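Progress note, project year one: complex with adenosine-5'-diphosphate.
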Amino acid sequence: MTHPRSLEPGLLWRARLRLAALSLLVMGTILYAAGFAMGQLLLQAQETAIQRELQTLAGTLHDSLKPALPPAAQPSAALGVVLPGLCVVGEPCTAPDALIRRHAVSATDSDRFQLRVLDHHGALIAHSPGPQPRAAEAEAVQTGLQLVRDRSGARWAAYTIHLHHSNAPGEPTWGYLQISSSLADLDARAERLWWLGHGVFALAMLGMALASWWLAGLAMAPLLEAYRRQVRFSADVAHELRTPLANLLAVVEAERNAVDGAGTSAASTTGTSLDRVLAQGRRLQRLIADLLLLASLERPCPQSLKAVCDLAEITADVMEDFNEAAAAAHVTLEQTIHTASPRVLGIASELSRLVINLLSNAIQHSPAGGRVWLELSRRGGEITLRIRDSGAGIAAGEQARIFDRFTRVDPGRSRQRGGTGLGLAIAQAIARRHGGVITVQSTPGEGSIFSVQLPAAGRRRPARCSACASARRADVADR
Ligand code: ADP
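Model obtained:
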């Protein structure tokens, strides 16, 4: 991005940051959702594989047990013979876990698989040695897959099928065969996957944040270029108009002086017309000067031009220059300084201009007999300049707009007063150039308060911070 600092830096950085943050949020959400879905699919696939394995094991065991089952589901010596690998309920359990090994090559781990035989009421008859998952004991037994927990809270997948004594049609269920598989491995893998996934996601977010910042810069480059061109264009137009207009006004002024000497009634009519031309020409000159100033305020301010300025001195000078205009408008000016050192690092002529623009607006919008207060205070590292008037105020809907160029709440009245509609835009550009902000609070019918917050300078003595008094007076006269 080309030199973003030169064009309203705060705004541009905020826009770039917003764009980068938004794209990061969108990409991050998509990535997270995709990763989450992938993880779930993976775990689901593994659970399905375990279910299939249990189903196969249960089927195989059932087929091999069926021919040897005793006629009734009673724990007995006969059952012990049929199921030599199981512990029969009510009898000492010394049985090895050989049954599962015998029937399924993959079911060699007794910590992973558990076998339980239940009678047709759901009561446990026999089980394989080792930890028992809590499952359908003496409850209504559900066939099919169930997820249960053992006493330690570990998860098991339990698959239950009916046991039949023979293939005779209509023969009642002998009992149930339940084979369970520990999900401890799967859960451990899921946890590892969770941590790994989140670690990868955090790294990806970091990479995407950098990429988003870079892409936002790329996306904004053409906009910036267009903005720079537009600023340059208005500055060039103003610059090109300035000299011919000055020449034109010089000629008109000379004509006006010549007409003054003639003393005829025709000359007096021409003189009035020339006065109008001169007034309009001077308005144009003010507009051009304001446009050029705004363009210059868009350029970065070299730190070397800044000095520690005492705002109390600047405001006192400006107030003095406005005394006459305020008296003519029957407006009382008051200044209160609540801090001993209202010092800021800046350019005196610009800070003067900031105060001039706000003060002239306050005076112009106050009725005869009104008051304008100027206050300076300090809070921590921040100096606040507040200009309050007892004027007509500004409607809430207009308050955000008045800092835009050429925005006038009452265009007719503003033009009549000679306003260019750029006064507040200039004040805002100066405040930003000094690292500050300008805000307005206003209640229609009661008045307005314009506040400028500027970063306070250190305790160094003021150095080289003086605005050219004649230029300042010319600005006051212009407003
Ligand atoms: P203008 O040259 O018209 O004064 P500004 O940029 O200084 O241009 O102000 C923009 C508009 O904001 C003004 O036209 C006016 O309507 C409104 N405004 C500014 N200051 C005040 C104020 N103190 N009280 C009421 N309205 C104000």
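Residues 447 and 464 are 36 Å apart (CA to CA).
The chain has two domains: 28-190, 302-478.
No further modelling is planned for this target in the current period.
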